[in-house]
Design brief:
The chain is an alpha+beta fold. Among the domains are: 85-291, no CATH class; 471-547, no CATH class. Helices cover 36% and strands 12% of the residues. The strands form five sheets. A six-stranded antiparallel sheet has the order 1-7-8-10-9-3. β9 (248-261) and β10 (270-281) form a beta hairpin. α11 packs antiparallel against α12. The protein is globular, with a radius of gyration of 24 Å. The two termini are 30 Å apart. Belongs to the SELO family. GO terms for molecular function: AMPylase activity; ATP binding; metal ion binding. Keywords: ATP-binding, Magnesium, Metal-binding, Nucleotide-binding, Nucleotidyltransferase, Transferase. It comes from Nicotiana sylvestris (Wood tobacco).
Length: 626
C-alpha cells in the first residue's frame, strides 16, 4: 500500500474504473482503495519521435501473438506424427535451471531457498475412470487421441502409474490472500509432471491437480473431488473457446476413492468422489512465485532474478534480444520529464508486458461477465492466463457486486466490478517484488502500472463497443445501459445476444421498440419500460449513423456475444450425473461450450436462465477450497 500511495502522490497514470467501466455511482464505494485517477497527460505513453508505428506496437503485438498461439493450432498439416504417451518429448527446464529443495519428503514445512520440491504423486486409486478429455489439448501436445482409449490411461494420468519421462515436482510460492500477505503457500495438491515440447518447440507444462500431498499441503490431504474437478476442466476449455487466455485441461479421471470435504465449513463434512485434472499451460508461474523469495530477504533476492531470467528466456524470449535504443522510450510525466528506454532494462520491459497481459485478460473477463472469485496474487499468472478455477461464476442477473465466493461475502473484495482494480493492486505487488530485488526502479514500476490502466481501458472500451455493435465507443450509452441492467437484474449473457436483433430503423413505433429484448426484460413495470424505451431510441439513433446493415451488424455482434456460457447450474447438473457414474452430461456440456458463439440448434436449453434450484447453497456460491 505504501507503493500505491507514492504512485498516486506522484501523479503516475493509473485508471479510474468508476468513470468508464460501470459509471453509475451506486455501483461502487467512493472510498474503494483500489481506484486511482489517470492523469490526462498520461493517457498515452509519450514515445520518442524516432519511433515508427511497427515498433510502437511491439508489446501489444507480442502479447496478441502469444494469446493466439495459446488459443489456436495453426498447423493444419496431416503429415504430423501423433505420439503415444511414452513418446512425448519431455523437457525439464524448471527442474534443470532453478534451485531445488534438498529434501523430497512431503512433510509440511517451510521450504527455503528453493523454487520447487521433487515429489511423486501419492494418490490412491481403485478402478480409475476417464470422465472427459480435450482433443484440442491433445493436439497441442501432438498426442494421438487414440491414447485416451488405452485401458491404462486413467492410471497414468492420475499419477498412480509413473509416466515415462516425467520428473514430478511441486512449485514453491507465496502470495497475498484477500489483501493480506500469507507467506509460503505452494502447490498443495498439484504436482507437475514436466514440460512437453512439440514439433514447433512450444513448451507445455503438464500438472496433475489432486495427485497427493506435497510439502506445501499444510494440513490438507492433497486431494481433489469430482465436483471441483469437473468445474475446473469445463471452465478451462470454455474460456479458451470464448477467446480468453487460460490454462487448459487435457483430461479428468476419477480415483475410485472417496474424499471427505466440508463444503460449507459448517461442521458437516461428507464423502465425495475423488478426481484428478491434468492441467496444461506453457507455465504455471505466478506473481507469488516471485513474491515469496523477495519476502525472505537478501539471501533469496538472487532467486527472484534467476526466476525472472528463466521466465524471460523461455516465455518472453523477444525481450532478450532487444538492443538499447530510443525507439521504445516513454515520458514519466513527472516534473523532471525524464525519459526511460525500456530496452535498457529487460526486466522493466517484462514487467510492462506482464501488466498489459493481465489487463487484457481482465478486460475480456468483464466482457463476458466472468468473475474469478479468488484473485489472490498466488492465483495470478505471469503469462496473463486465467488460472486456478475455484469458486468462479458467470453473471446471470447483472449485479456488479456479484461474488461467487462465500469466503468473499463480507467485503466482496473480489466481486465482478472490483476485478480491474484488484488486477492493478496485484500488478503493484508484482512490481514491488521486482523493485525489492533491484530489477526495477520506481519510475519503471510506476510505468508498468500506468500501462496496466491504459491497456485495460483500451481493451475494455473496444470490447464493449463491439458488444453493442457501435461504430465508436460511446461512454454515455454504455454507462446508461449498464445502469439499467443493474436496476432490473437483466441476464448479462442473454441480453447482449438479443441486442443484435434490434434494427437500425428510426420508424419503429415506441411501443414496439422493446419487442426484440422481451425475453430479457422480464417483469419490469411501466416506469422501467419508459427508461428502457428511451435507451433503445438513443441506441437506434446511434446505429443509424454507422452505415452498417442490420445483417452485418448482427453477425458481428454474435461473434463477440456468446449464446452459451458455463453457468453454475449447468455445471451442477453435470456434476450430479457424474457423481452417479454417468459422464455423458459432462461430455455434452463440453461440446456445447466449445462453440459458444454458434446457435447450435437443439441445444437451446443450455442458454436458459437458471432454474429456481440453482440458487440453493453450493450451486451459485462456493468457498475458496471447494
Amino acid at each position: 500500500m505504501q507503493m500505491l500511495s507514492r504512485i498516486s502522490a506522484s501523479s503516475t497514470a493509473l485508471f479510474h474504473l468508476r468513470s468508464s467501466l460501470l459509471r453509475p455511482r451506486f455501483y461502487f464505494s467512493p472510498n474503494n482503495p483500489f481506484s486511482f485517477p489517470i492523469q490526462p497527460h498520461l493517457r498515452r505513453p509519450l514515445f520518442s519521435s524516432s519511433m515508427d508505428s511497427a515498433t510502437a506496437a511491439t508489446v501489444d503485438s507480442v502479447a496478441d501473438n502469444f494469446k493466439n498461439q495459446s488459443l489456436e493450432n495453426n498447423d493444419s498439416s496431416n503429415d504430423k506424427r501423433l505420439l503415444k504417451l511414452e513418446e512425448l518429448n519431455w523437457d525439464h527446464s524448471f527442474v534443470r535451471e532453478l534451485p531445488s529443495d534438498s529434501r523430497t519428503d512431503t512433510i509440511p514445512r517451510e521450504v527455503l531457498h528453493a523454487c520447487y520440491t521433487k515429489v511423486l504423486p501419492s494418490v490412491e486409486v481403485e478402478n480409475p475412470q476417464l470422465v472427459v478429455w480435450s482433443e484440442s489439448v491433445a493436439e497441442l501436445l501432438e498426442l494421438d487421441p487414440k491414447e485416451f482409449e488405452r485401458p491404462d490411461f486413467p492410471l497414468l494420468l492420475s499419477g498412480a502409474s509413473p509416466l515415462v519421462g516425467a520428473v514430478p515436482y511441486a512449485q514453491n510460492y507465496g502470495g497475498h490472500q484477500f489483501g493480506t500477505w500469507a507467506g509460503q503457500l505452494g502447490d498443495g495438491r498439484a504436482i507437475t509432471l514436466g514440460e512437453v515440447l512439440n514439433s514447433k518447440s512450444e513448451r507445455w507444462e503438464l500438472q496433475l491437480k489432486g495427485a497427493g500431498k506435497t510439502p506445501y499441503s499444510r494440513f490438507a490431504d492433497g486431494l481433489a473431488v469430482l465436483r471441483s474437478s469437473i468445474r475446473e476442466f469445463l471452465c478451462s476449455e470454455a474460456m479458451r473457446s470464448l477467446g480468453i487466455p487460460t490454462t487448459r485441461a487435457l483430461c479428468l479421471v476419477t480415483t475410485g476413492k472417496d474424499v471427505t470435504r466440508d463444503m460449507f465449513y459448517d461442521g458437516n463434512p461428507k464423502d465425495e468422489p475423488g478426481a484428478i485434472v491434468c492441467r496444461v499451460a506453457q507455465s504455471f508461474l505466478r506473481f507469488g512465485s516471485y513474491q515469496l523469495h523477495a519476502s525472505r530477504g537478501k539471501k533469496d533476492l538472487e532467486i527472484v532474478r534467476t526466476l525472472a531470467d528463466y521466465a524471460i528466456r523461455h516465455h518472453f524470449p523477444h525481450l532478450e534480444n532487444m538492443s538499447k535504443s530510443e525507439s521504445i522510450s516513454f515520458s514519466t510525466g513527472e516534473e523532471d520529464d525524464s525519459a526511460v528506454d525500456l530496452t535498457s532494462n529487460k526486466y522493466a520491459a517484462w514487467a510492462v508486458e506482464v501488466a498489459e497481459r493481465t489487463a487484457s485478460m481482465i478486460a475480456r473477463w468483464q466482457g463476458v461477465g466472468f468473475t474469478h472469485g479468488v484473485m489472490n496474487t498466488d492465483n495470478m499468472s505471469v503469462l496473463g492466463l486465467t488460472i486456478d478455477y475455484g469458486p468462479f461464476g458467470f453473471l446471470d442477473a447483472f449485479d456488479p457486486s456479484f461474488t461467487p465466493n462465500t469466503t468473499d461475502l463480507p467485503g466482496r473484495r473480489y466481486c465482478f466490478a472490483n476485478q480491474p482494480d484488484i488486477g492493478l493492486w496485484n500488478v503493484a505487488q508484482f512490481a514491488k517484488t521486482l523493485s525489492t530485488a533491484q530489477l526495477l526502479n520506481d519510475k519503471e514500476s510506476n510505468y508498468a502500472m500506468e500501462r496496466y490502466g491504459i491497456k485495460f481501458m483500451d481493451d475494455y472500451q473496444a470490447i464493449m463497443t463491439k458488444k453493442l455493435g457501435l461504430a465508436k465507443y460511446n461512454k454515455q450509452m454504455i454507462g446508461d445501459l449498464l445502469k439499467n441492467m443493474a436496476v432490473d437484474k437483466v441476464d448479462y449473457t442473454n441480453f447482449f445476444r438479443l441486442l443484435s436483433n434490434v434494427k437500425a430503423d428510426l420508424t419503429i413505433p415506441a411501443d414496439q421498440l422493446l419487442i426484440p429484448l422481451k425475453a430479457a426484460l422480464l417483469d419490469i413495470g411501466m416506469e422501467r419500460k419508459e427508461a428502457w424505451t428511451g435507451w433503445v431510441k438513443s441506441y437506434i439513433q446511434e446505429l443509424s449513423t454507422s452505415g452498417v446493415s442490420d445483417e452485418e451488424r448482427k453477425a458481428s455482434m454474435n461473434s463477440v456475444n456468446p449464446k452459451y456460457v458455463l453457468r453454475n447450474y449447468l455445471c451442477q447438473s453435470a456434476i450430479d450425473a457424474a457423481e452417479q457414474g454417468d459422464f455423458r452430461e459432462v461430455r455434452r456440456l463440453l461440446k456445447v461450450m466449445q462453440r459458444p458463439f454458434d446457435e447450435q440448434p437443439g441445444m437451446e436449453k443450455y442458454a436458459r436462465l437458471p432454474p429456481a434450484w440453482a440458487y440453493r447453497p453450493g450451486v451459485g456460491m462456493l468457498s475458496c477450497s471447494s
